[in-house]
Amino acid sequence: MNIFDVLSQGKGRLNEENLSAMLAFLLSPNQSHGLSDIFLRHFLEAIARSCGEENRFSNIINDAKPIRADILLESPYSLGKKRRVVDIEIRIFKPTFKQPNNKEELTETHRIAIESKIKAQSASPKQFKEEFEAILKDIEVDDQVEVTMVFLTPSNKHKGLSEEYEMLDKNTLGPHKKSWLFWSDETDMDNTVIGLIRDILKKESEAEIPPMMEYLRHTLKGFVLHLLESSKGPITQPAEGYGIAEVAFLEFSKGKYRIERYENSTIRVINIETQKYESAKPLLKKIIEEKKLGVDLSYPSGSEKNTRTLGKEVMEELIRLTSINK
């Protein structure tokens, strides 16, 4: 049994916020996982490789002392009248000592902002750039804080994701850096969350790092398997026995939705935001209209198609369009 697959069924679906929370948990040196800062160090190494500056965090990684870091979820920022929220934020500090009492104070040296997406359809052209601009406004002028923007996505094959990443260009970044990492990517596992977890599991098995709790070891394996299943794209085959034959994700004027086709051909549509099932047929008709899908509402005889047929044809058309856009 994989607890991540179980939690992804029914109304309690795992979403970006849930997976970001799991990642933040692993990154935090102070959480109950028992890894201390091991995962954080691996993650910093991956960021440095990806942004083309392999020594960016060397003084932190090579220091035997525990990393002083705060891991924040859903950090809010203001950019004019806009509100921007960073999914995960890593703030790294170094101790300084103030005279005359030699009291320790912490000075922020690095701020790493992670924009996490688990679906390519979540791309938003200006979001990544505006998050960076909002962070710069938050940092005091005299603070020597190095900012690193991390784009964490399923892959770089989707046009919308590439456009969002490239919108934050070198002129905007100035002396700061950006990095593109992946939840899973078969062509570049070194820069993926899956690759980092596998590396840690391997090192633990070979006694290169301290032993893990058995429960944590199984949880990490389950998380990897769930990410691998989720990385297959918008159309996936869920675990056997749940009765779902295939699923599709899409976003249109009504919001973000998941279409489910069951083994008995039943079609159900769930609103991802509210986590509630809605009447399928009216939504399918709206999807056909807005997405300009080549799906007729009626049979050649003139009679109206039932929900099962309409849903099946809509999903087939979405699969075709997805393959074209890849």
Strand ordering within the main sheet: 1-2-3-4-5
**Helical residue percent?**
25-40%
Task: Give me the Rg, rounded.
Answer: 22 Å
Summarize the helix and strand pattern as letters. HHHHEEEHEHHEHHEEEEHH
* Shape field: globular
Number of domains: 2
Mean pLDDT, nearest integer? 84
For the largest beta-sheet, the strand count, sense and barrel status come to:
5 strands, mixed
The total of helices stands at 11
* Weakly predicted, low-confidence segments: 233-242
Give the structure's gist in a few sentences:
The protein has 326 residues and is α+β, with helices and mostly antiparallel strands.
Could you give the topology of this structure?
Blueprint: H1 3-7, H2 16-27, H3 38-50, H4 58-61, E1 68-79, E2 82-98, E3 103-116, H5 127-138, E4 146-153, H6 159-167, H7 170-173, E5 177-182, H8 193-205, H9 214-230, E6 244-252, E7 255-262, E8 267-271, E9 276-278, H10 280-291, H11 307-325
Parallel strand pairs: 3-4, 4-5
Antiparallel strand pairs: 1-2, 2-3, 6-7, 7-8, 8-9
Helix pairs in contact: 3-8, 8-9, 10-11
Could you describe the 3D structure shown?
Helix 10 packs parallel to helix 11 (307-325). The protein has helices at residues 3-7, 16-27, 38-50, 58-61, 127-138, 159-167, 170-173, 193-205, 214-230, 280-291, 307-325, and strands spanning 68-79, 82-98, 103-116, 146-153, 177-182, 244-252, 255-262, 267-271, 276-278. The strands form two sheets. The chain has a five-stranded mixed beta sheet. It folds into two domains: 3-230; 244-325, no CATH class. The model is unreliable at 233-242 (pLDDT under 50). Strand 7 and strand 8 form a beta hairpin. It is an alpha+beta fold and 326 residues long.
